[in-house]
Write a structure and sequence with these properties.
Length: 624
Amino acid sequence: MVQTSWCFTYHIFILWFFLGRGIGVVVLTGDRTNMGRIADLVANLPRVETPIAREIKNFIDIITWFALAMGVIFFALSLFMGYGWLEAVIFLIGIIVANVPEGLLVTVTACLTLTAKRMAARNCLVKHLEAVETLGSTSTICSDKTGTLTENRMTVTHLWFDGKIYAADVSFKGRLTVDDVQPLPTYMALMRVAALCNRAEFKAGWDKEENILKSQCTGDAGEQALLKYSEIALGSIQKWRQRCIKVTEIPFNSSNKYQISIHMDTESKNQKHMLLMKGAPERILELCTTIYAEGVEQTLTAAWRDKFQRTYDALGGQGERLLGFCDYTLPTDKFPPDFNFETDPPNFPLKNLRFLGLISLSDPPRATVPDAVSKCRTAGIRVVMVTGDHPVTAVAIARICGIIGKESALANDFIVRDVSTKETKSRLLRVNPCLADSICVEGSHLFHMSSDELEFIITHYTEIVFARTSPQQKLIIVESFQKMGEIVAATGDGVNDAPALRKADIGVAMGITGSDVSKEAADMILLDDNFASIVCGVEEGRIIFDNLKKSIAYTLTSNIPEILPFLLFVIIGIPLALSTVTILCIDLGTDLMPAIALAYERAESDIMRRQPRDPYKDRLVNKR
């Protein structure tokens, strides 16, 4: 049904689309749009109170009731002892003024302002300043891998086809030094998929004579690496893309774990269509029934699958990210040149495809990450990796980063994996935690786990990696840690990460690769996408709490000598040494500056060697 008003058009509010391309027509802007109205409503919603705000409110409530109680008691006592109304009121005001910490507001402001400056210098943008103190209480950090723990600077390192592993050896000038693979038909078919089933492009003005590996591109980091390598291998990707016109595509998403594009070869006799696919190797392999090897299409036997698994373990064990590639030539009698392809649901085959091979990408961990993870361990903070990568790759990177100790036993090594997903999950849960310190939980296992089983893993394993997870499962992971009483910081960069970022005690979005939705949901944005910045935030959060405790302790200590002259005057008649005006002068003239100065205190030497603060027990003001 066609709507006559755009207000009732189903697609006018683009909340149902997260991937792909399109052309839009602007009909309204700003707050007049549907998105603008919702943003305005969200902006007017009351914000959740942070722990530091609750602590300060709790302290103010205590000191207010104490000051009022003391004032009323001595007001009544003054009248009882025969003092006039005027003198009794002066005593009341003096007692209340002596108890009020006039410098608290300025001290808190100074603490938060100084923290904002220090965090900004460390490439960390704090949206809600009070949330930094919550970061100081963090006991668990659920971190992404790509771009956060690693540099998100990918390069092609190995290729596997024809049953052999080839090193992608590229010289400084950007030309292959190993030329013997170029004439191989499987290699050319593999490169064709890498070049065409790829949304990355060289930026305008690119000079072909310059170093290809250093050229500027648009698109995902992994696709950029494939684009550059394909340009080296094929000579000119643009010619291939002009010859093989893209007809339709299904972008990669976390559910399917593959990307599809269909191209029409304009130079072929019948202008045939080719289906090209890349994605998670195990996902691609299960859609294939044949394999292209040494120029011959063969049945994908158990022997080939065994070679595939051994290659995956070998390359993935080095921390390399692997992608699988396959293709399928669509028959011209069913798919003529003018065929209308649909993607939802697909009206073309997605099974019985031809497997081509694997390409591995290297994304080195950031140099600062191992030290940052070590500091987290010392500070009593558990770092958990939550990634969409294959378990083998995830565990390898986790060991390099220090999330899993190099000598730590992995629970997964104690089970046989050639069984169903449910049985693998059951065997994993039956492993004695005394035999292993670490565990890798796959998204497929997590799907079949109950909340009690997940809590068992969280409780009994100190080193945890979640692999092949979806954004929805990240939310479940965050909630499970919170149920165990943990204060959780979570990182994310995608639209689908927003629920987990909002649910976490501290949501941390990526400034470079992060989507606008994730940045809006987060409390903090890492401008350099660097995990080490989170550790800096933890330290700053602990400094804030320490300095506020020092300032409040100083303020309360100075209240005693201010109250004492009033007590002695009322009880035993000693002449009043401090008037109300004098107390105000002392508080604003001498007490204020030292209280503010305490906000400039540097971190204690053991601040990152303490266990995380328990927000329910370790209060800003306690009985001491």
